[in-house]
Write a sequence for this structure.
């Protein structure tokens, strides 16, 4: 059976496929995961921490268009970054500052002390920085290293490397 999806949304990423259901919006994806996989990952425990985490996730959901467009996701590649716009450089600095602030304020190693949905939401950005060899400040680099050490990320990278499909828009940059 073909996944349930609006024809206008085909080709959108990220997308989560669960049998005959396609969920193509990042906020909808993490809400779905929270509902269908309780106990796997959650928002931070404290009310104030949850508010900050939701703000960070909403910013990721609706922003960072320079990072998205100039550093396409490809976890199996390693390449030099293209010339980055001032906007993209400012976005990278914003991500670094958020990561450092959260890790310092909440005690790391994760953004809010314990692993949370915020770490999941920012994992793809961390992996983009790896793909393009983006030089990061130590606090941001430590977060990227923690993301790379996750068994689920390692499985994702291994599965990605084994894929035979290549997309010219990403693989031929």
């Amino acid at each position: 059976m073909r996944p349930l999806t609006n024809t206008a949304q085909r080709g959108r990423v990220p997308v989560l496929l669960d049998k005959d259901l396609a969920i193509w919006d990042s906020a909808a994806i993490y809400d779905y995961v929270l509902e269908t996989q309780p106990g796997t990952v959650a928002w931070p425990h404290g009310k104030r921490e949850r508010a900050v985490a939701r703000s960070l996730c909403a910013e990721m959901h609706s922003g960072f268009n320079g990072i998205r467009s100039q550093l396409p996701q490809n976890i199996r590649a390693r390449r030099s970054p293209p010339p980055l716009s001032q906007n993209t450089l400012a976005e990278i600095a914003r991500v670094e500052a958020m990561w450092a602030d959260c890790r310092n304020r909440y005690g790391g190693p994760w953004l809010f002390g314990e692993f949370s949905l915020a770490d999941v939401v920012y994992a793809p950005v961390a992996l983009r920085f790896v793909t393009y060899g983006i030089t990061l400040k130590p606090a941001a680099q430590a977060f990227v290293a923690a993301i790379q050490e996750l068994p689920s990320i390692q499985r994702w990278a291994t599965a990605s490397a084994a894929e035979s499909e290549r997309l010219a828009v990403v693989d031929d940059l």
Observations:
- The mean pLDDT is 88.
- Residues 47-158 form a domain with the Glutathione S-transferase Yfyf (Class Pi); Chain A, domain 2 fold (CATH 1.20.1050.10).
- Residues 86-106 form the longest helix (21 residues).
